Amino acid sequence: MRYVEEFRDPVAAKGVLAAIARVADEIGATRDTPVHIMEICGGHTHAIFRYGLDKLVHDGIEFIHGPGCPVCVLPMSRVDECVELAERPEVIFTTFGDAMRVPGTRKSLLQAKAEGADIRMVYSPLDALELARRNPEREVVFFGLGFETTTPSTALTIQAAARDGIGNFTVFCNHITVPPPIKALLDDPHMKLDGFVGPGHVSMVIGIHPYDFISETYGKPIVVSGFEPLDLLQSVLMVLQQIRDGRAEVENQYARVVPEHGNPVSLAAIADVYEPRPSFEWRGLGEIDASGLRIRDPYKQFDAEEKFGIGYANERKPAPEPEGCACGAVMTGRMKPTQCPQFGRGCTPDMPLGALMVSSEGACAAYWTYGGARHLEPAE
After folding, report:
1. What is the pLDDT of residues 334-360, one digit of tens each?
2. CATH number, residue 19
């Protein structure tokens, strides 16, 4: 615990905040003309609000919340397909807990479970594989969801299922990758982004070089960051220093955890089991080329889309967002959660309209958890 507390030291934090203020003044950042820094990871968003960093940094720093919450960027049509799978009588549907309350167009997985669907929360895909071993008469489907952080564990589980010849286990694959949506945002002429705080957990798997295009092609600095207050403050300072010095580089603040070239075992498992999809739909961003992963042909027997004829293996059914829901705009940094007219009114943690209010990494959940009704303006 002492090691963790060193990254929460208030004296050290004051020193970094003072350095941030000096550099922000040097580059002319003000409340009216701020430096826009996007934290890509939803975990960073929650840390910023948990520790009040948005209030502590210089007025000329504006945090833009990026598409780094894998539950949040999943379109409602994919949630509908989860429910469709879960309601099949022969299926035991398994999922991580943070996906249970995400609404589809008809219902959430939690509502489907309440109505009798056999849906079980698990802590890892290996738990789902064990369920398949114990229930050979049932089809066990695991909801494979997440960025590169969780992709290796699903890949290793599929490899284990293949070795053990377990034929009643499949994965509904919704694994996605970080770089393509960042490129899509940088290509958007309406987005104003001056630098990035890069995701720590994802980078632990893929390393730092997949972000080279951000600096080399778009001339923007990015600093891969840890999750403690001093990690984030130091990363903001490093971004500002690059801007001041006229540099655009990929820097690694989280070097104590993130290796430059990633985790070779994880990367090998991903390459063996998965290949890029031609395109994948993102909430708020639409179809993005090669941004999602699908299961390779040698492992197709473990692909729930192929086995049950849903999703990209069949004619897909697009699902529009609920009327008045601004999840897409919030998730891509075009709008703050409190600017959504439904925030705290038509959309609350108890009765969510969108995934950002219920996901453990959603921006709306961060605003609500660490501010709640304080963020609400009086209704006109």
Report:
1. 889 999 988 988 888 888 888 888 888
2. 3.40.50.11750
Closest CA relative to residue 6, chosen from 204, 198, 200, 226: 226
Average pLDDT over the chain, rounded to whole? Answer: 92
Domain boundary (219, 234, 252) is at: 252
**Residue 153 belongs to a domain:** yes
Model confidence at 326, in pLDDT bands (50, 70, 90)?
A: confident
How many domains in the chain? 2
Taking the C-alpha atoms of residue 131 and residue 118, their distance in angstroms, rounded to an integer, is 12
User: What does the pLDDT look like over 193-230, one tens digit per residue?
Assistant: 999 999 999 999 999 999 999 999 999 999 999 999 99
Rounded CA-CA distance 150/125 in Å is: 10
Question: Dihedral through CA 161, CA 148, CA 43, CA 260, nearest 10?
Answer: 130
Q: Indicate if 165 and 277 belong to the same structural domain.
A: yes
Say how far apart CA 79 and CA 99 lie, in whole Å: 9
pLDDT tens-digit series, residues 38-90: 999 999 999 999 999 999 999 999 999 999 888 888 888 999 999 999 999 99
Write out the residue range of the structural domain in which residue 159 sits: 76-177+261-313
Determine, yes or no, domain membership for 376.
no
- Spatial separation of the C-alpha atoms in residues 109 and 150, rounded to whole Å: 20
d(CA 321, CA 286): 12
How far apart are alpha carbons 258 and 119 in whole angstroms? 35
Share of the chain above pLDDT 90, in %: 74
Outline where DSSP puts E strands in 225-316.
250-252, 274-276, 279-282, 286-289, 293-295
The pTM (predicted TM-score) of the whole model is 0.91
CA-to-CA dists, residue 99 to 71, 79, 158, angstroms: 6, 9, 21
Indicate whether 21 belongs to any domain.
yes
- Give me the phi and psi of 273, to 5 degrees please: -95, -35
**Does one domain contain both 6 and 48?**
yes
Contact between residue 304 and residue 310 where contact means Cβ atoms under 8 Å apart: yes
Q: What's the burial of 249, exposed, middle or buried (CB within 10 Å: 0-12/13-18/19+)?
A: middle
Residues in contact with 5: Cβ distance below 8 Å, sequence separation at least 6, in sequence order: none
